[in-house]
Design brief:
The complex is a heterodimer of chains A (about 375) and B (about 325).
Chain A: H1 2-10, H2 16-25, H3 35-82, H4 90-107, H5 111-137, H6 143-162, E1 170-171, E2 174-175, E3 188-190, E4 197-199, H7 201-223, H8 226-236, H9 238-243, H10 248-274, H11 284-297, H12 302-319, H13 323-338, H14 343-358, H15 361-375
Antiparallel strand pairs in A: 1-2, 3-4
Helix pairs in contact in A: 3-7, 3-10, 3-11, 3-12, 4-5, 4-10, 5-10, 8-10, 11-12, 11-13, 12-13, 14-15
Chain B: H1 2-32, H2 39-55, H3 61-84, H4 87-96, H5 109-131, E1 144-147, E2 150-153, H6 154-176, H7 178-188, H8 190-195, H9 200-222, H10 233-247, H11 251-273, H12 275-292, H13 296-312
Antiparallel strand pairs in B: 1-2
The chains are: A mainly alpha (about 375), B mainly alpha (about 325).
Chain lengths: ~375, ~325
């Protein structure tokens, strides 16, 4: 089966519509380029689809928060794992989008207004990322200094938003509320006038799930495209990539903006989920969570980002109480020290080694070329 | 006139805070290429140990501060052996599985940040679990310094003196001692240093212990002035982090200049517009400075000096 995959990837000849779609979704930059993987993927999506019927609407709506966070995890995976820019400030775009959604939707509380707020919020996240990214990448800021600028940006916003309690910090009808945040953000609604749909509870769960699957597949296409290869080249060796004539600054800026939009989507959904957003989203502890998720899952795999985000948040919430952060910290330590590549790539390697041991040797050679491409 | 004096005291206060918060972090980052995101929690540990030694054991304040510093330095040694160099896990791994369990975190900036961030989560929550959400505080010693209608805490003036003392001492250690020479050789070229017989492993361990001890000292010194909560390290970490980057590669001079510069901005804006604005100004200054001087102030100074030398030759 794995040989087949290898052929499907290297062979430009697509076999039918399904093969052509798979050709787009598969490549050296993603894990899970086999028929077995897609079968597992289908099972997982199906399980998530029936999940609300098993656990009830309340649990499903609670669970949808973890799916919302998955976009934030994906945004860091793209920026850090694929383009090599460690941003400690994905929550900046998350929070800005959440606040933007809050302000616009409170002021225009009609379905059309809220639909607009949804889009404006995501755009706000992307715009802030673009401005910050332009400032950094076109100014020659590199490596750990990018991390520090993004981290400090988070803290600036935290300090700033925490002091917006006064009346002068009211935009139209919406009061920013300082430390207490904005409590009365309306539910998400999509559409215009009579054709509109107010989305809450189980419906919200399904909306987020559909968006997540679409985003995941879309990003798979992106990272396996030509631009995806440029991203990975920038991560592996910036100077050599520039030498080959690619505009590294532009590539980084584009990826960073995309990351901002994804984090923004997450932030908008978060604000709509809890009808609430507060300066807590800019806190250091929250800012570190995406780094935790992506490090544990495996930074250069989209699947790792999603699985680790949902898994860790589910775990952290069910654990609750005082031991949650200790456990997360220990997990992070052990995984970064023992499995620096992350859990999902490690599982993938183990699985392929087990299979490779049982089947014909050529399988192993075609498969083992892939990690070299990504890890070299 | 009063306002000018007020500003001066405020400046000394911010300067001491930035320098003391940053010194340990800067030394570890400068020599080992490790960013210790648990630095704030090391400071917290020093403050807690000091307070506990003073309140529960009844030690006099100076002795309690010494306890705080030593406890943090020892904790630093443990962290270096277990997490940063991995020599203890690797020794266990060799015995049990016959292979190393992990790579040292030296010069792996992102990985060291993530790992120490995990450590800091454990430390904050661990303290919260064992000692609760807050702790009784020791009173600020030394009383007030009064002039005219204005008074100022004498203790804070002493703090700025200590900050200067730390800088001078660090300078002497790095320029006048055997350890300082080995440490600078390790920064310059680790492989050559090792070939010439410098035990770089030991230099690293000693560096980490010194950095942790300085964090412990900072915690001990600020224990009487901050609210004793498990999360108190956060506010130190930010200033420290920013100062290290703004300061640049030269550890001692960079920390001093960054402390002076950021402290000045903070004092000035705080005086004009309030403390929140002062903090925001400090952070925004840092962002802008990193953008225009990616190698920090001392990197810029060195570049100018190099250019001038070229021109003169």
């Amino acid at each position: 089966m794995a040989t087949e995959t290898g052929a499907g990837r290297t062979d430009p000849e697509p076999s039918g519509l399904l093969g052509r779609i798979r050709g787009r979704l598969e490549g050296p930059n993603t894990i899970g380029n086999s028929r077995a993987y897609w079968a597992g993927f289908a099972v997982a999506v199906a399980a998530l689809l029936v999940y609300p019927y098993i656990v009830g609407a309340y649990q499903a709506s609670r669970f949808s928060l973890f799916l919302v966070y998955a976009f934030l995890g994906l945004s860091l995976s793209v920026v850090w794992g694929y383009a090599g820019v460690l941003s400690f400030g994905q929550v900046v775009f998350f929070g800005v989008a959440g606040y933007t959604f809050g302000v616009v939707s409170v002021n225009f509380a009609t379905p059309a207004g809220i639909t607009g707020a949804f889009l404006v919020g995501i755009g706000g996240g992307a715009l802030v990322a673009a401005v910050l990214g332009y400032f950094m990448f076109y100014g020659g800021v590199r490596d750990v200094y990018v991390t520090i600028i993004t981290l400090v940006s988070t803290l600036v916003l935290h300090t700033f938003m925490a002091q917006t309690a006064g009346d002068q910090w009211t935009i139209g009808e919406a009061a920013l509320g300082g430390f207490n945040g904005m409590p009365t953000i309306p539910n998400l609604a999509l559409g215009v006038g009579g054709a509109a749909l107010v989305i809450s509870d189980v419906m919200f769960y399904y909306l987020v799930l559909v968006l997540l699957v679409a985003t995941y597949l879309g990003l798979r296409v992106l990272v396996n495209s030509d631009f995806g290869r440029v991203m990975v080249a920038v991560r592996e060796d910036e100077d050599r990539t520039r030498m080959f004539g690619y505009d590294v600054r532009r590539a980084k800026l584009l990826v960073f903006t995309l990351g901002g939009a994804l984090a923004g989507l997450s932030g908008v959904l978060y604000a709509a989920w809890g009808n609430y957003v507060s300066p807590g989203v800019f806190e250091l502890a929250f800012a570190s969570l995406p780094v935790v998720w992506v490090s544990i899952g495996g930074r250069d795999t989209l699947l790792g980002a999603v699985a680790a985000t949902v898994g860790i948040e589910f775990f952290r919430n069910s654990l609750g109480g005082e031991w949650a952060f200790v456990t997360v910290g220990a997990l992070l330590l052990v995984s970064i020290l023992g499995l620096p590549g992350g859990v999902v790539p490690w599982l993938d390697r183990t699985y392929r080694n087990l299979r490779g041991g049982g089947t014909t040797p050529p399988t192993e050679t075609t498969d083992s070329t892939d990690p070299e491409v990504t890890e070299a | 006139m009063i306002n000018g004096l007020n500003l001066l005291f405020q400046f000394l206060d911010s300067f001491a805070f930035v320098v003391l918060a940053a010194a340990g972090l800067a030394i570890i980052f400068g020599i080992m290429g490790v960013i210790n995101l648990a630095h704030g929690e090391f400071i917290m540990l020093g403050a807690y140990a000091t307070t506990l030694a003073s309140v529960r054991l009844g030690l006099p304040l100076v002795a309690a501060m010494l306890v705080g510093m030593v406890v943090t330095a020892l904790f630093g040694l443990l962290v270096e052996r277990v997490i940063i160099s991995g020599s203890i896990p690797n020794a266990i791994g060799q015995r049990v599985a016959g292979r190393d369990l992990m790579e040292p975190l030296y010069d792996r900036l992102a990985d060291s940040m993530v790992a120490t961030w995990g450590l800091s989560l454990i430390m904050v929550q661990g303290v919260r679990i064992t000692l609760g959400n807050s702790l009784d505080q020791i009173g600020t010693p030394l009383g007030e310094l009064a002039y005219g209608g204005f008074s100022y805490s004498m203790y804070r003036v002493v703090l700025s003196g200590v900050a200067l003392g730390v800088l001078v001492l660090a300078y002497l250690v790095f320029t006048r001692t055997e350890f300082g020479m080995r440490a600078r050789a390790t920064i310059q070229d680790e492989d050559t240093a090792r070939a010439l017989g410098v035990d770089t492993e030991r230099t690293y361990a000693a560096t980490f212990v010194i950095g942790s001890g300085l964090a412990g000292l900072t915690g001990a010194l600020y224990a009487p002035t901050v609210t004793m909560v498990p999360g108190l390290g956060g506010s130190f970490l930010v200033e420290a982090f920013v100062a290290v980057v703004v300061g640049g590669p030269s550890v001692v001079l960079g920390t001093a200049l960054a402390g002076g510069f950021l402290g000045g901005i903070n004092a000035l804006v705080s005086n004009l517009l309030g403390t929140t604005a002062g903090r925001i100004a400090l952070l925004v200054t840092a962002i802008v400075m990193i953008r225009f001087l990616p190698d920090g102030i001392t990197g810029f100074v060195e570049r100018v000096r190099a250019r001038r030398q070229e021109g003169g030759a």
